[in-house]
Design brief:
The complex is a heterodimer of chains A (375) and B (349). Chain A has 375 residues and is of the alpha/beta class. Chain A has 16 helices and 13 strands. Classes of the chains: A alpha/beta (375), B alpha+beta (349). Chain B: Belongs to the HypE family.
């Protein structure tokens, strides 16, 4: 397949892997966080770790919007959907995320709530147009990648004068989360980041500068193909060996220094920063999420329906928080593979296919057994 | 009423719709069955008009199966729910190495369903069953109120006979056995998805729906008991089938990604939607686990049959107490091929 197969070429990958092994200094450990769930997925699905030397450890970061959404916000969505006049439109990944009291959007749907899975914001707009008597609420989540389509939906709703469309805004900001991870005392020491792919096509490279200048951490922005990831690892190893901390762009075919100006302007026009927002596993992070600006308040489901988020506690045995911070690995959690599996997820890392627990369960858990056998 | 019209007025098959009277057991229902189903399936057993059909069978092991079809949309590139309900059930019989003999068909129809669509489905079933040589000899019709079904649900059952002494079963795979696949994967699932209301995209991919019993017959003739088991990788795709085999036989499996055929258009559609073709449904493919020494000759026999032209050796059964299906990726790494959790859905970003 043109433009795909060339990024999955095993021969090329083995060549890069040999260079990584040759250049990685055997006396030291390299710990890199891939921020995006897309990278985690690619690493697991293509077995990238099998090609890396033992002293390079990939830490799976919190870059999956489903994983970092706190339970209280799922509770809010369920409460919204329970209103008789509301049709809640959601991306399917969210359906199985556990909410308080063992419920979920999927269970709420089975109980009779009008919850519909959509594939894009435009599907939600279409429902609002088709069913003017329903209050259509789009459950908006995601990083800077999915924020522009939500902005587009607001624009369209405005243009079409839709009075029955609103969004429940849960959009979050990538650099704020990366900063929070570096500042937490409970994580592991991370020496560099494989930077977000799709997010960076929107925001460009410049928002990561401070990680190089203030925190002295190299960031290599990489695509989601396995060759992209392994090449980014080589670039990070070289930076570390040379004592550099630069922002480098492996994903030149899609990412520019300044990003997509039109998308950035549109986001700035429609959204503003919240003072603070809770991230699952990371707690409250200042200026890390978006809400609608006052002039678009009519499209804000939180204002329209008076949503007040109550704090909700995850299962205390669930280690999603520590896993999202890189402090623990999925297999370190007592629930992993016992009470918590993709069929019976206790925490968000197991729910989303891009979550680190789900990726480890679905693609990599045999390695753990092989290692145990070997030792 | 005209005495020559014992079943009441003719149906308007072009513009009419199914209503509750068509399921009431009265004249309207008799008319529907005669004009739509008997017309499409036409055979002596149906014409006899009994609530069951009697037939003789040859000696051997009786094999029976039943299956329900609730596909959406009902019509998709390369097929429809009718054809699928014939092929799918025949294939379940064929996977036992058996020759399918007769089928039944049951319909649950939603009030308001267009008669033209029902005719189209019935005719498609009639054609598929005649082409396969497996007549539909008895059936049932129910009509439910609007909103209580999704257009039409079809259930079919089939009986067949397997040669005496041939006992293919999911628990018979042994370490060292070879895994063969009869062709490219994912065609059916991608064809259906391409027509889903909220996911439509242009593609030339046609469903691979087909009755596999003729292919199975030549395989059984060529390799007989060297074939441990056969299975058609329908819902859950190749991944589910391999996991089922590993689970039932208490073994593991090892497959090579580069050996698994995937049509370029299917690979491209899956890429676009963030799906893995290993989990996408097939309706005209089979997986066979066969003793290693018989694998080469069986592969040649499969490739000589029109429905097995794309056959490939994709891996082998291994000893593994955990029952993992492992795959060497095209990229050179290793991974598990796990059961699908929930439905495979396009990713958010």
């Amino acid at each position: 397949m043109k433009h795909v197969d060339e990024y999955r070429d095993g021969e090329l990958a083995r060549g890069i892997a040999r260079r990584i092994t040759a250049e990685a200094q055997p006396e030291r450990d390299y710990r890199f966080m891939e921020f995006c769930g897309g990278h985690t997925h690619a690493i697991s699905r293509y077995g990238v770790e099998d090609l890396l030397p033992e002293n390079i450890r990939m830490i799976h970061g919190p870059g999956c919007p489903v994983c970092v959404l706190p339970m209280g916000r799922i509770d809010d969505a369920i409460k919204l959907a329970a209103r008789p006049e509301v049709t809640l439109c959601t991306y399917a990944d969210l359906m199985r995320v556990p909410a308080s009291g063992g419920t979920s959007l999927m269970k709420a749907k089975a109980d009779g709530a009008d919850i519909r899975m959509v594939y894009s914001t435009l599907d939600a707009i279409a429902i609002a147009e088709k069913e003017p008597d329903r209050e259509v609420v789009f459950f908006a989540i995601g990083f800077e990648t999915t924020t522009p389509p939500t902005a587009l939906a607001i624009r369209l709703a405005q243009k079409k004068r839709l009075r029955n469309f609103s969004i429940f805004c849960n959009h979050v900001i990538t650099p704020a989360a990366m900063q929070a991870i570096l500042e937490t005392n409970e994580g592991v020491a991370i020496e560099g980041f494989v930077g977000p792919a799709h997010v960076s096509t929107v925001i460009g490279m410049s928002p990561y500068r401070r990680f190089a200048t203030d925190y002295h951490k190299p960031v290599v922005i990489a695509g989601f193909e396995p060759l992209d990831v392994i090449q980014a690892v080589l670039m990070l190893v070289r930076q570390i060996n040379e004592g550099r901390s630069d922002i480098e762009n492996q994903y030149r075919r899609a990412v520019t220094e300044t990003g997509n100006g039109r998308a950035i302007d549109e986001m700035a026009e429609i959204f503003e920063l919240r003072e603070s927002f809770e991230w699952r596993g990371l707690g409250e992070i200042p200026r890390s999420a978006l809400r609608l600006r006052e002039k678009y308040a009519q499209f804000d489901a939180e204002q329209r329906f008076g949503v007040v988020t109550s704090p909700a506690r995850d299962n205390p045995a669930c280690e999603c928080g520590a896993i999202l911070r890189g402090a623990k690995r999925p297999q370190d959690c007592k629930l992993f593979g016992t009470a918590c599996t993709p069929e019976t997820p206790m925490g968000s890392c197991m729910v989303s296919s891009e979550g680190s627990c789900a990726a480890h369960w679905a693609y990599g858990r045999f390695r753990q057994l092989e290692r145990r056998k070997a030792s | 009423m005209n005495k020559h019209e014992p079943m009441g007025r003719k149906l308007d098959l072009r513009n009419g719709r199914v209503d509750l009277s068509h399921g009431s057991g009265g004249r309207a229902m008799a008319r529907l069955i005669a004009d739509v189903f008997h017309a499409a399936f036409d055979n002596d057993w149906l014409r006899a008009g009994n609530d069951q059909a009697a037939f003789d069978i040859a000696a051997g092991r009786m094999v029976m199966t039943t299956d329900g079809y609730v596909v959406s949309p009902l019509f998709f590139p390369g097929g429809d729910i009718g054809k699928l309900s014939v092929h799918g059930t025949i294939n379940d019989i064929a996977m036992a190495g058996a020759r399918p003999l007769h089928m039944s068909a049951s319909f649950i129809i939603e009030e308001g369903f267009p008669l033209a669509d029902l005719c189209r489905i019935a005719q498609s079933m009639g054609e598929a069953s005649r082409a396969a040589g497996v007549p539909i000899i008895t059936g049932d019709t129910k009509v439910v109120e609007r909103g209580k079904a999704d257009g039409v649900f079809v259930s079919t059952a089939c009986v067949g006979v397997a040669p005496a002494g041939l006992e293919l079963s999911g628990d018979k795979a042994r370490p060292g056995d070879t895994i063969l696949l009869s062709g490219s994967i994912g065609d059916h699932g991608v064809a259906v998805m391409s027509k889903r209301e909220n996911l439509s995209f242009e593609t030339e991919v046609l469903s691979d729906t087909a009755a596999l019993h003729e292919l199975v017959a030549v395989m059984v003739e060529a390799a007989g008991p060297a074939i441990r088991l056969m299975r058609d990788p329908t819902r859950g795709g190749l991944a589910a089938t391999l996991n089922e085999i590993a689970h039932q036989s208490k073994v593991g499996a090892h497959v090579e990604e580069s050996a698994i055929p995937v049509a370029p258009q299917v690979a491209a559609a899956c890429e676009l939607l963030g799906l893995d073709p290993l989990f996408v449904a097939n309706e005209g493919k089979l997986v066979a686990v066969v003793a290693a020494e018989a694998a080469d000759s069986l592969l040649a026999v499969m490739r000589a049959h029109p429905l097995g032209r794309g056959s490939a050796r994709i891996g082998e059964i291994v000893a593994d107490e955990h029952g993992f299906v492992q795959m060497t990726t095209r990229f050179g790494g290793g991974r598990i091929v796990d059961w699908l959790s929930g439905e495979q859905l396009p990713r958010i970003c």
